[in-house]
Design brief:
Layout: E1 19-21, E2 26-28, E3 33-34, E4 45-46, E5 54-55, H1 69-74, H2 79-96, H3 100-126, H4 144-166, H5 171-192, H6 195-199, H7 201-211, H8 213-235, H9 240-268, H10 289-302, H11 306-319, H12 324-348, H13 352-369, H14 377-386, H15 395-408, H16 411-418, H17 428-443, H18 449-472
Antiparallel strand pairs: 1-2, 1-5, 3-4
The protein binds zinc ion (2 copies).
Protein backbone atom coordinates (compact mmCIF):
# COMPACT_ATOMS: atom_id res chain seq x y z
CA UNK A 1 0.00 0.00 0.00
CA UNK A 2 1.19 3.44 -0.87
CA UNK A 3 2.23 5.40 2.17
CA UNK A 4 1.50 8.87 0.90
CA UNK A 5 -1.81 9.35 -0.76
CA UNK A 6 -2.75 12.87 -1.69
CA UNK A 7 -6.41 13.30 -1.09
CA UNK A 8 -7.40 15.28 -4.13
CA UNK A 9 -7.94 14.31 -7.73
CA UNK A 10 -4.84 15.00 -9.80
CA UNK A 11 -7.07 16.46 -12.50
CA UNK A 12 -9.68 18.17 -10.33
CA UNK A 13 -7.71 19.81 -7.52
CA UNK A 14 -10.82 20.67 -5.57
CA UNK A 15 -12.42 17.24 -5.73
CA UNK A 16 -11.62 14.43 -3.33
CA UNK A 17 -9.94 11.45 -4.97
CA UNK A 18 -11.60 8.04 -4.83
CA UNK A 19 -9.10 5.96 -6.78
CA UNK A 20 -5.38 5.69 -7.10
CA UNK A 21 -3.51 4.63 -10.21
CA UNK A 22 -0.22 2.95 -9.28
CA UNK A 23 0.92 3.00 -12.91
CA UNK A 24 0.93 6.76 -13.52
CA UNK A 25 0.82 7.66 -9.83
CA UNK A 26 -2.27 9.80 -10.11
CA UNK A 27 -5.26 10.23 -7.85
CA UNK A 28 -8.61 10.05 -9.54
CA UNK A 29 -12.07 11.29 -8.79
CA UNK A 30 -14.95 9.37 -10.33
CA UNK A 31 -14.95 11.63 -13.38
CA UNK A 32 -11.36 10.73 -14.13
CA UNK A 33 -12.06 7.01 -14.18
CA UNK A 34 -12.71 5.22 -17.45
CA UNK A 35 -15.67 2.90 -16.85
CA UNK A 36 -16.38 1.76 -20.39
CA UNK A 37 -15.11 -1.76 -19.76
CA UNK A 38 -16.63 -1.82 -16.29
CA UNK A 39 -20.09 -1.26 -17.74
CA UNK A 40 -19.64 -4.53 -19.62
CA UNK A 41 -18.40 -6.48 -16.64
CA UNK A 42 -14.75 -5.48 -16.95
CA UNK A 43 -12.52 -3.40 -14.74
CA UNK A 44 -12.37 0.26 -13.93
CA UNK A 45 -9.27 1.76 -15.48
CA UNK A 46 -7.34 4.98 -15.11
CA UNK A 47 -8.66 7.77 -17.30
CA UNK A 48 -5.12 8.99 -17.72
CA UNK A 49 -3.13 5.89 -18.66
CA UNK A 50 -5.71 3.11 -18.93
CA UNK A 51 -4.16 0.93 -16.20
CA UNK A 52 -5.93 -0.95 -13.47
CA UNK A 53 -6.74 1.33 -10.53
CA UNK A 54 -7.23 0.82 -6.81
CA UNK A 55 -10.10 2.13 -4.79
CA UNK A 56 -8.50 4.61 -2.42
CA UNK A 57 -11.19 4.81 0.18
CA UNK A 58 -13.57 7.48 1.18
CA UNK A 59 -13.15 10.95 -0.19
CA UNK A 60 -11.72 13.62 2.06
CA UNK A 61 -14.95 15.49 2.30
CA UNK A 62 -16.36 12.90 4.72
CA UNK A 63 -17.45 14.63 7.89
CA UNK A 64 -15.11 14.03 10.83
CA UNK A 65 -16.55 11.75 13.47
CA UNK A 66 -16.82 14.40 16.21
CA UNK A 67 -19.10 16.46 14.02
CA UNK A 68 -21.38 13.48 13.76
CA UNK A 69 -21.87 12.88 17.45
CA UNK A 70 -25.30 14.55 17.50
CA UNK A 71 -26.33 12.62 14.40
CA UNK A 72 -25.04 9.44 16.01
CA UNK A 73 -27.38 9.91 18.93
CA UNK A 74 -30.24 10.12 16.47
CA UNK A 75 -28.99 7.00 14.69
CA UNK A 76 -31.04 4.48 16.74
CA UNK A 77 -34.10 6.73 16.79
CA UNK A 78 -36.16 4.60 14.47
CA UNK A 79 -39.44 3.08 15.55
CA UNK A 80 -38.45 -0.61 15.09
CA UNK A 81 -35.18 -0.03 16.93
CA UNK A 82 -36.89 1.79 19.79
CA UNK A 83 -39.45 -1.01 20.00
CA UNK A 84 -36.63 -3.54 20.24
CA UNK A 85 -35.10 -1.52 23.08
CA UNK A 86 -38.41 -1.18 24.96
CA UNK A 87 -39.47 -4.79 24.49
CA UNK A 88 -36.12 -6.13 25.60
CA UNK A 89 -36.11 -3.87 28.69
CA UNK A 90 -39.60 -5.07 29.61
CA UNK A 91 -38.71 -8.74 29.04
CA UNK A 92 -35.60 -8.38 31.19
CA UNK A 93 -37.68 -6.79 33.92
CA UNK A 94 -40.28 -9.57 33.82
CA UNK A 95 -37.59 -12.23 33.86
CA UNK A 96 -36.03 -10.64 36.95
CA UNK A 97 -39.04 -11.64 39.01
CA UNK A 98 -38.66 -15.29 37.94
CA UNK A 99 -36.04 -17.84 38.82
CA UNK A 100 -32.39 -16.93 38.33
CA UNK A 101 -32.04 -19.74 35.78
CA UNK A 102 -34.75 -18.32 33.55
CA UNK A 103 -33.37 -14.85 34.07
CA UNK A 104 -29.86 -16.00 33.07
CA UNK A 105 -31.13 -17.79 29.96
CA UNK A 106 -33.23 -14.81 28.94
CA UNK A 107 -30.43 -12.33 29.32
CA UNK A 108 -28.04 -14.56 27.30
CA UNK A 109 -30.57 -14.71 24.47
CA UNK A 110 -31.16 -10.97 24.56
CA UNK A 111 -27.41 -10.37 24.66
CA UNK A 112 -27.06 -12.53 21.54
CA UNK A 113 -29.66 -10.42 19.76
CA UNK A 114 -28.04 -7.16 20.80
CA UNK A 115 -24.48 -8.25 20.06
CA UNK A 116 -25.55 -9.20 16.59
CA UNK A 117 -27.33 -5.90 16.10
CA UNK A 118 -24.50 -3.78 17.48
CA UNK A 119 -21.98 -5.41 15.24
CA UNK A 120 -24.22 -4.96 12.25
CA UNK A 121 -24.35 -1.25 13.17
CA UNK A 122 -20.56 -1.19 13.22
CA UNK A 123 -19.91 -3.11 10.00
CA UNK A 124 -22.70 -1.38 8.06
CA UNK A 125 -21.46 2.05 9.10
CA UNK A 126 -17.90 1.09 8.25
CA UNK A 127 -19.13 0.54 4.68
CA UNK A 128 -20.70 3.97 4.51
CA UNK A 129 -24.28 3.03 5.45
CA UNK A 130 -25.50 5.84 7.72
CA UNK A 131 -28.95 4.44 8.46
CA UNK A 132 -29.50 2.00 11.31
CA UNK A 133 -29.78 -1.59 9.96
CA UNK A 134 -33.19 -3.30 10.03
CA UNK A 135 -33.99 -4.86 13.38
CA UNK A 136 -34.55 -8.24 11.75
CA UNK A 137 -30.85 -8.46 11.00
CA UNK A 138 -30.35 -9.02 14.74
CA UNK A 139 -32.35 -12.24 14.53
CA UNK A 140 -31.00 -13.62 11.30
CA UNK A 141 -27.72 -15.31 10.45
CA UNK A 142 -25.63 -17.65 12.51
CA UNK A 143 -24.90 -17.54 16.20
CA UNK A 144 -21.18 -17.78 15.57
CA UNK A 145 -20.68 -14.04 15.99
CA UNK A 146 -22.36 -14.21 19.35
CA UNK A 147 -20.19 -17.09 20.55
CA UNK A 148 -17.09 -15.40 19.31
CA UNK A 149 -18.03 -12.23 21.13
CA UNK A 150 -18.72 -14.21 24.30
CA UNK A 151 -15.30 -15.80 23.90
CA UNK A 152 -13.85 -12.37 23.40
CA UNK A 153 -15.34 -11.09 26.63
CA UNK A 154 -14.26 -14.23 28.46
CA UNK A 155 -10.77 -13.57 27.15
CA UNK A 156 -10.95 -9.96 28.30
CA UNK A 157 -12.13 -11.14 31.69
CA UNK A 158 -9.29 -13.66 31.93
CA UNK A 159 -6.74 -11.07 30.86
CA UNK A 160 -8.12 -8.66 33.40
CA UNK A 161 -8.08 -11.33 36.13
CA UNK A 162 -4.55 -12.37 35.25
CA UNK A 163 -3.22 -8.85 35.13
CA UNK A 164 -5.02 -7.85 38.28
CA UNK A 165 -3.54 -10.84 40.09
CA UNK A 166 -0.05 -10.05 38.76
CA UNK A 167 -0.22 -6.37 39.60
CA UNK A 168 -2.43 -6.53 42.62
CA UNK A 169 -1.51 -3.11 44.08
CA UNK A 170 -2.23 -1.46 40.77
CA UNK A 171 -5.68 -2.95 40.48
CA UNK A 172 -7.22 0.32 39.30
CA UNK A 173 -4.56 0.96 36.71
CA UNK A 174 -5.28 -2.45 35.20
CA UNK A 175 -9.01 -1.72 35.00
CA UNK A 176 -8.25 1.58 33.33
CA UNK A 177 -6.00 -0.16 30.79
CA UNK A 178 -8.69 -2.70 29.97
CA UNK A 179 -11.33 0.03 29.51
CA UNK A 180 -8.89 1.87 27.29
CA UNK A 181 -8.14 -1.07 25.05
CA UNK A 182 -11.55 -2.77 24.72
CA UNK A 183 -13.04 -0.35 22.14
CA UNK A 184 -9.91 -0.73 20.01
CA UNK A 185 -10.22 -4.53 20.19
CA UNK A 186 -13.86 -4.30 19.16
CA UNK A 187 -13.02 -2.03 16.23
CA UNK A 188 -10.31 -4.45 15.14
CA UNK A 189 -12.78 -7.29 15.37
CA UNK A 190 -15.35 -5.37 13.34
CA UNK A 191 -12.74 -4.47 10.75
CA UNK A 192 -11.13 -7.86 10.28
CA UNK A 193 -13.83 -10.24 11.54
CA UNK A 194 -10.92 -12.19 13.01
CA UNK A 195 -10.77 -13.30 16.60
CA UNK A 196 -6.97 -13.16 16.69
CA UNK A 197 -6.94 -9.57 15.48
CA UNK A 198 -9.37 -8.58 18.20
CA UNK A 199 -7.30 -10.17 20.95
CA UNK A 200 -3.93 -8.92 19.78
CA UNK A 201 -2.98 -6.07 22.13
CA UNK A 202 -0.29 -4.90 19.69
CA UNK A 203 -2.92 -4.39 16.99
CA UNK A 204 -5.09 -2.51 19.45
CA UNK A 205 -2.19 -0.18 20.34
CA UNK A 206 -1.45 0.35 16.66
CA UNK A 207 -5.07 1.29 16.06
CA UNK A 208 -5.09 3.68 19.01
CA UNK A 209 -1.95 5.47 17.81
CA UNK A 210 -3.27 5.69 14.27
CA UNK A 211 -6.61 7.13 15.29
CA UNK A 212 -4.89 9.48 17.74
CA UNK A 213 -7.11 12.16 19.20
CA UNK A 214 -10.22 10.63 17.68
CA UNK A 215 -9.81 7.54 19.81
CA UNK A 216 -9.48 9.60 22.99
CA UNK A 217 -12.59 11.53 22.05
CA UNK A 218 -14.42 8.25 21.69
CA UNK A 219 -13.21 7.13 25.13
CA UNK A 220 -14.31 10.45 26.58
CA UNK A 221 -17.74 9.91 25.12
CA UNK A 222 -17.91 6.41 26.61
CA UNK A 223 -17.05 7.86 30.02
CA UNK A 224 -19.75 10.50 29.67
CA UNK A 225 -22.29 7.82 28.75
CA UNK A 226 -21.22 5.62 31.63
CA UNK A 227 -21.42 8.62 33.94
CA UNK A 228 -24.95 9.44 32.83
CA UNK A 229 -26.15 5.89 33.62
CA UNK A 230 -24.44 6.14 37.02
CA UNK A 231 -26.06 9.49 37.62
CA UNK A 232 -29.45 8.05 36.81
CA UNK A 233 -28.90 5.15 39.18
CA UNK A 234 -28.10 7.67 41.93
CA UNK A 235 -31.32 9.53 41.24
CA UNK A 236 -33.53 6.49 41.10
CA UNK A 237 -31.89 4.42 43.81
CA UNK A 238 -35.09 4.13 45.76
CA UNK A 239 -37.20 3.16 42.82
CA UNK A 240 -35.49 0.03 41.62
CA UNK A 241 -38.45 -1.13 39.53
CA UNK A 242 -38.32 2.00 37.44
CA UNK A 243 -34.59 2.31 37.32
CA UNK A 244 -33.64 -1.16 36.06
CA UNK A 245 -35.63 -1.15 32.78
CA UNK A 246 -34.67 2.46 32.13
CA UNK A 247 -31.00 1.69 32.67
CA UNK A 248 -31.30 -1.32 30.32
CA UNK A 249 -32.96 0.84 27.71
CA UNK A 250 -30.39 3.61 27.95
CA UNK A 251 -27.31 1.44 28.03
CA UNK A 252 -28.48 -0.60 25.02
CA UNK A 253 -29.27 2.63 23.23
CA UNK A 254 -25.82 4.00 24.05
CA UNK A 255 -24.22 0.82 22.74
CA UNK A 256 -25.90 1.32 19.36
CA UNK A 257 -24.60 4.89 19.25
CA UNK A 258 -21.13 3.70 20.22
CA UNK A 259 -20.94 0.86 17.71
CA UNK A 260 -22.19 3.21 15.03
CA UNK A 261 -19.49 5.72 16.00
CA UNK A 262 -16.81 3.02 16.00
CA UNK A 263 -17.99 1.97 12.54
CA UNK A 264 -17.85 5.57 11.46
CA UNK A 265 -14.28 5.86 12.67
CA UNK A 266 -13.39 2.93 10.41
CA UNK A 267 -15.27 4.50 7.50
CA UNK A 268 -13.65 7.88 7.98
CA UNK A 269 -10.14 6.53 8.52
CA UNK A 270 -9.92 3.85 5.87
CA UNK A 271 -6.69 5.28 4.54
CA UNK A 272 -5.04 5.80 7.90
CA UNK A 273 -6.01 2.30 8.93
CA UNK A 274 -4.59 0.85 5.75
CA UNK A 275 -7.82 -0.87 4.77
CA UNK A 276 -8.69 1.49 1.96
CA UNK A 277 -9.82 -0.46 -1.04
CA UNK A 278 -11.31 -3.34 0.92
CA UNK A 279 -14.69 -1.67 1.03
CA UNK A 280 -15.29 -0.76 -2.57
CA UNK A 281 -18.65 0.73 -3.46
CA UNK A 282 -20.06 0.04 -6.89
CA UNK A 283 -19.26 2.61 -9.52
CA UNK A 284 -22.43 4.09 -10.86
CA UNK A 285 -21.59 7.43 -12.39
CA UNK A 286 -24.20 7.91 -15.08
CA UNK A 287 -22.45 9.54 -18.00
CA UNK A 288 -23.32 9.77 -21.64
CA UNK A 289 -20.59 8.75 -24.04
CA UNK A 290 -20.01 12.42 -24.79
CA UNK A 291 -19.57 13.26 -21.09
CA UNK A 292 -17.14 10.38 -20.67
CA UNK A 293 -15.11 11.52 -23.67
CA UNK A 294 -15.14 15.09 -22.38
CA UNK A 295 -13.76 13.84 -19.06
CA UNK A 296 -11.02 11.96 -20.93
CA UNK A 297 -10.32 15.04 -22.98
CA UNK A 298 -9.94 17.13 -19.88
CA UNK A 299 -7.15 14.86 -18.64
CA UNK A 300 -5.40 14.97 -22.02
CA UNK A 301 -5.56 18.76 -22.06
CA UNK A 302 -4.39 19.11 -18.47
CA UNK A 303 -1.47 16.77 -19.03
CA UNK A 304 -0.48 18.78 -22.12
CA UNK A 305 -0.87 15.83 -24.51
CA UNK A 306 -1.98 18.14 -27.28
CA UNK A 307 -1.71 15.64 -30.10
CA UNK A 308 -3.82 13.01 -28.33
CA UNK A 309 -6.31 15.69 -27.33
CA UNK A 310 -6.45 16.96 -30.87
CA UNK A 311 -7.01 13.44 -32.21
CA UNK A 312 -9.80 12.77 -29.73
CA UNK A 313 -11.38 16.13 -30.51
CA UNK A 314 -11.23 15.46 -34.23
CA UNK A 315 -12.86 12.08 -33.66
CA UNK A 316 -15.57 13.55 -31.44
CA UNK A 317 -16.27 16.36 -33.88
CA UNK A 318 -16.66 13.75 -36.58
CA UNK A 319 -19.49 12.30 -34.52
CA UNK A 320 -20.94 15.60 -33.29
CA UNK A 321 -19.96 18.29 -35.80
CA UNK A 322 -22.32 20.93 -34.42
CA UNK A 323 -21.24 20.65 -30.79
CA UNK A 324 -20.30 24.21 -29.74
CA UNK A 325 -18.22 23.10 -26.75
CA UNK A 326 -16.16 20.73 -28.88
CA UNK A 327 -15.70 23.33 -31.61
CA UNK A 328 -14.59 25.86 -29.06
CA UNK A 329 -12.19 23.41 -27.38
CA UNK A 330 -10.54 22.48 -30.64
CA UNK A 331 -10.18 26.13 -31.54
CA UNK A 332 -8.67 27.00 -28.13
CA UNK A 333 -6.36 24.01 -28.33
CA UNK A 334 -5.19 25.02 -31.77
CA UNK A 335 -4.71 28.63 -30.73
CA UNK A 336 -2.60 27.45 -27.80
CA UNK A 337 -0.36 25.31 -29.98
CA UNK A 338 -0.27 27.69 -32.94
CA UNK A 339 2.89 29.62 -32.00
CA UNK A 340 4.78 26.31 -31.79
CA UNK A 341 3.37 25.20 -35.14
CA UNK A 342 4.32 28.50 -36.77
CA UNK A 343 7.86 28.25 -35.43
CA UNK A 344 8.15 24.66 -36.61
CA UNK A 345 6.92 25.59 -40.08
CA UNK A 346 9.36 28.48 -40.24
CA UNK A 347 12.32 26.34 -39.16
CA UNK A 348 11.60 23.29 -41.27
CA UNK A 349 9.84 25.07 -44.11
CA UNK A 350 6.91 22.65 -43.91
CA UNK A 351 3.55 24.16 -44.61
CA UNK A 352 1.45 21.06 -44.12
CA UNK A 353 0.74 21.58 -40.39
CA UNK A 354 -0.26 25.13 -41.22
CA UNK A 355 -2.70 23.95 -43.85
CA UNK A 356 -4.32 21.75 -41.23
CA UNK A 357 -4.39 24.65 -38.80
CA UNK A 358 -5.94 26.86 -41.44
CA UNK A 359 -8.65 24.29 -42.10
CA UNK A 360 -9.52 24.03 -38.42
CA UNK A 361 -9.57 27.80 -37.96
CA UNK A 362 -11.71 28.26 -41.07
CA UNK A 363 -14.11 25.65 -39.77
CA UNK A 364 -14.32 27.34 -36.40
CA UNK A 365 -14.89 30.81 -37.81
CA UNK A 366 -17.58 29.51 -40.15
CA UNK A 367 -19.14 27.77 -37.18
CA UNK A 368 -19.26 30.95 -35.06
CA UNK A 369 -20.32 33.03 -38.06
CA UNK A 370 -23.25 30.72 -38.73
CA UNK A 371 -24.84 32.02 -35.54
CA UNK A 372 -24.02 35.73 -35.97
CA UNK A 373 -21.42 37.35 -38.22
CA UNK A 374 -20.24 39.70 -35.46
CA UNK A 375 -19.29 36.69 -33.32
CA UNK A 376 -16.58 35.62 -35.71
CA UNK A 377 -14.70 38.93 -35.55
CA UNK A 378 -13.24 38.54 -32.09
CA UNK A 379 -11.76 35.06 -32.72
CA UNK A 380 -10.51 36.26 -36.08
CA UNK A 381 -8.70 39.09 -34.31
CA UNK A 382 -7.22 36.61 -31.80
CA UNK A 383 -5.97 34.43 -34.63
CA UNK A 384 -4.38 37.37 -36.42
CA UNK A 385 -2.62 38.38 -33.20
CA UNK A 386 -0.80 35.03 -33.29
CA UNK A 387 -0.73 34.33 -36.99
CA UNK A 388 -0.58 37.68 -38.79
CA UNK A 389 -0.65 36.20 -42.29
CA UNK A 390 -3.68 33.98 -41.70
CA UNK A 391 -6.08 34.19 -44.60
CA UNK A 392 -9.09 31.90 -44.77
CA UNK A 393 -9.06 29.47 -47.66
CA UNK A 394 -12.75 29.68 -48.35
CA UNK A 395 -14.11 32.63 -50.31
CA UNK A 396 -17.39 32.51 -48.46
CA UNK A 397 -15.61 32.94 -45.13
CA UNK A 398 -13.44 35.76 -46.45
CA UNK A 399 -16.51 37.61 -47.68
CA UNK A 400 -18.33 37.13 -44.40
CA UNK A 401 -15.37 38.44 -42.43
CA UNK A 402 -14.82 41.35 -44.81
CA UNK A 403 -18.47 42.42 -44.45
CA UNK A 404 -18.12 42.16 -40.70
CA UNK A 405 -14.97 44.28 -40.51
CA UNK A 406 -16.38 46.80 -42.96
CA UNK A 407 -19.39 47.29 -40.72
CA UNK A 408 -17.08 47.71 -37.76
CA UNK A 409 -15.15 50.39 -39.67
CA UNK A 410 -11.97 48.33 -39.83
CA UNK A 411 -11.28 48.92 -43.52
CA UNK A 412 -7.71 47.63 -43.48
CA UNK A 413 -8.77 44.21 -42.28
CA UNK A 414 -11.64 44.12 -44.76
CA UNK A 415 -9.28 45.05 -47.57
CA UNK A 416 -6.75 42.35 -46.64
CA UNK A 417 -9.49 39.74 -46.86
CA UNK A 418 -10.73 40.92 -50.25
CA UNK A 419 -7.38 41.36 -51.96
CA UNK A 420 -6.81 38.86 -54.76
CA UNK A 421 -10.30 37.45 -54.32
CA UNK A 422 -10.62 36.68 -58.04
CA UNK A 423 -7.78 34.12 -57.69
CA UNK A 424 -9.93 32.02 -55.38
CA UNK A 425 -12.08 29.25 -56.71
CA UNK A 426 -15.22 31.21 -56.00
CA UNK A 427 -18.36 31.76 -57.98
CA UNK A 428 -18.44 34.79 -60.24
CA UNK A 429 -21.27 36.32 -58.24
CA UNK A 430 -19.27 36.16 -55.03
CA UNK A 431 -16.22 37.60 -56.81
CA UNK A 432 -18.41 40.46 -57.94
CA UNK A 433 -19.81 40.88 -54.47
CA UNK A 434 -16.25 40.93 -53.10
CA UNK A 435 -15.12 43.68 -55.46
CA UNK A 436 -18.24 45.73 -54.89
CA UNK A 437 -17.44 45.56 -51.23
CA UNK A 438 -13.81 46.39 -51.92
CA UNK A 439 -14.90 49.50 -53.82
CA UNK A 440 -16.96 50.61 -50.85
CA UNK A 441 -14.05 49.92 -48.52
CA UNK A 442 -11.64 51.92 -50.69
CA UNK A 443 -14.06 54.84 -50.86
CA UNK A 444 -13.92 55.01 -47.10
CA UNK A 445 -10.11 55.03 -46.98
CA UNK A 446 -8.31 58.35 -47.53
CA UNK A 447 -5.73 58.44 -50.35
CA UNK A 448 -7.18 55.35 -52.07
CA UNK A 449 -9.05 57.13 -54.84
CA UNK A 450 -6.84 55.64 -57.59
CA UNK A 451 -7.30 52.11 -56.23
CA UNK A 452 -11.03 52.67 -55.99
CA UNK A 453 -11.13 53.63 -59.66
CA UNK A 454 -9.09 50.54 -60.61
CA UNK A 455 -11.52 48.47 -58.64
CA UNK A 456 -14.44 50.09 -60.44
CA UNK A 457 -12.90 49.22 -63.81
CA UNK A 458 -12.28 45.67 -62.70
CA UNK A 459 -15.91 45.32 -61.69
CA UNK A 460 -17.01 46.56 -65.10
CA UNK A 461 -14.74 44.00 -66.80
CA UNK A 462 -16.11 41.28 -64.61
CA UNK A 463 -19.70 42.28 -65.29
CA UNK A 464 -19.01 42.34 -69.00
CA UNK A 465 -17.47 38.84 -68.83
CA UNK A 466 -20.42 37.59 -66.85
CA UNK A 467 -22.71 39.24 -69.40
CA UNK A 468 -21.00 37.41 -72.29
CA UNK A 469 -20.99 34.06 -70.49
CA UNK A 470 -24.61 34.74 -69.58
CA UNK A 471 -25.65 35.47 -73.18
CA UNK A 472 -23.59 32.51 -74.47
CA UNK A 473 -25.64 30.20 -72.33
ZN1 LIG B 1 -10.98 14.15 -11.40
ZN1 LIG C 1 -2.92 5.86 -14.59
Amino acid sequence: MKSQITDFCSWHPLTGALYHCPECDSELCEHCVDDRQYQNGGELVCGNCGSHILYAGVPVDVEPFWRRIDKSFRYPLRLPVLLLLIVSAVITEILRSYSPVLQGLGSVLLAAVFFKYWFTCLTDTAQGEMEAPPVLSAFSGSMSLFFRLILLFVAFGAAYGGLAALAAPYHELVSALIVLIVPACLINFGMTDRFTAALNPWMAIKLITRLGLQYWLLLGLILVMYGSVEFLSGLLQEQQTLFMPLADFISNYYMMVLFHLMGYMIYQNQRVLGIAGTIEPSFDLQRTNRQLQMDRLRILLLSARWQDADRLLGQLLGELPGDPELQNLRYRLLLGTLPGKLLEAKQQKITLPLQEAQQILDQYLLFTGSRAVEQMLSPHKDILAIWASYLPASGKLRLMLAHGWFQQGDFKRALALLNGFHKLKASKSSVLEAYHLMQQVLHNMPGMERQAQQCHRFIQQLSAMQGTTGSAR
